[in-house]
Amino acid sequence: METIILLTGNVKYNITLDPGVWIFDDRKVDLTTYFDSEKKSENLIEKYTKEVSAHWDREIKEGAIIPPTTQSEKKFKKTEILNGTFGIHFHDFLKHSSPTQDAKNLKIVTTTETVVISLQEAFDAILGFSLNGKPLKEDGPVHFYFGDGSNRHNPIKGITKFIIE
User: Is 152 part of a structural domain of the chain?
Assistant: First the structure.
């Protein structure tokens, strides 16, 4: 099965998606809890400022002491990655492809059908790429979940290509 997916069509830049490397991406989300959690729009600058501020405060109070929990935190992260079910927001990829002004829809081409959705729905979507720590090989390489989670138990599977129209 092909593990690379193309994002083409009415875009300024064609994008090649490789789900195999997303496990290392900090933007990944845990799909077991994502659709159950409260959605709040975050201001990325505000989030960054809070994180840097907290780090700065800790440095001032404690100094640059490496906590003894570092090894157990690494082990926990590794276990989480090896057993987790993850997805990634689709909007970053769509944004980087720079859809043209007249682009209105996204055509999702699968091995069995073609599904057409609005570009706005696509911007809210999540691409699932890992199930219980394993890449989606049987019916993957990605599963397409609507942002509201309406198809969370029956995502669009077997995707081979995305075409913006």
Answer: yes
Number of domains in the chain: 1
Q: What's the domain range around 150? A: 5-39+83-164
Q: What ranges make up the beta strands (E) of 24-73?
A: 29-30
Q: Report pLDDT digits (tens) over 87-99.
A: 999 999 999 999 9
Domain contains 131: yes
10 Å CB burial of residue 14 (0-12, 13-18, 19+) is exposed
Whether the CB-CB separation of 96 and 15 falls below 8 Å is answered with yes
Q: Is the bond leading into 141 cis (omega within 30 degrees of zero)?
A: yes
Q: Establish if 63 belongs to a structural domain.
A: no
The pTM for the full model equals 0.76
**What pLDDT score does 80 carry?**
67
Nearest 5°: CA angle at 51, between 46 and 56? 120
